[in-house]
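// run 5 | inverse folding | seed 20
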């Protein structure tokens, strides 16, 4: 589960097992499935990690998946971009996501990967 850092009434929750992703715009009173999100995942994948942050003044949500790398949305989950260039095999199994100094880091089943700000390809480690 993750909350929009600019508007805490917007929250995201993943089921962790079937690939469904839900959004609330009223502080969790009601939830709506994000249409089409599950179709972005392979049949055995799901979201294991949700992470929200602010980039260039806008809220961004990242979904770390069990087998499909990372997905990113800049429009409250309406559309998603796949961020998996440079992730292969067990590196596509995301365990944690965090930003530091503008870069996105992913803890994976194959170690730590870094996505430098403004790029679309992951690299192993912190350099």
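// decoded
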């Amino acid at each position: 589960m993750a909350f929009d850092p600019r508007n805490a009434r917007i929250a995201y929750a993943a089921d962790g097992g079937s690939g469904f992703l839900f959004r609330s715009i009223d502080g969790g009173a009601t939830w709506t499935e994000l249409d089409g999100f599950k179709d972005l995942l392979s049949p055995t994948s799901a979201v294991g990690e949700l992470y929200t942050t602010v980039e260039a003044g806008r809220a961004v949500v990242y979904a770390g998946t069990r087998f499909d790398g990372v997905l990113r949305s800049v429009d409250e989950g309406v559309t998603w971009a796949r961020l998996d260039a440079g992730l292969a095999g067990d590196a596509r199994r995301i365990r944690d996501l965090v930003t530091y100094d503008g870069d996105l880091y992913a803890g994976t089943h194959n170690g730590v990967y870094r996505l430098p700000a403004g790029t679309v390809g992951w690299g192993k480690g912190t350099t």
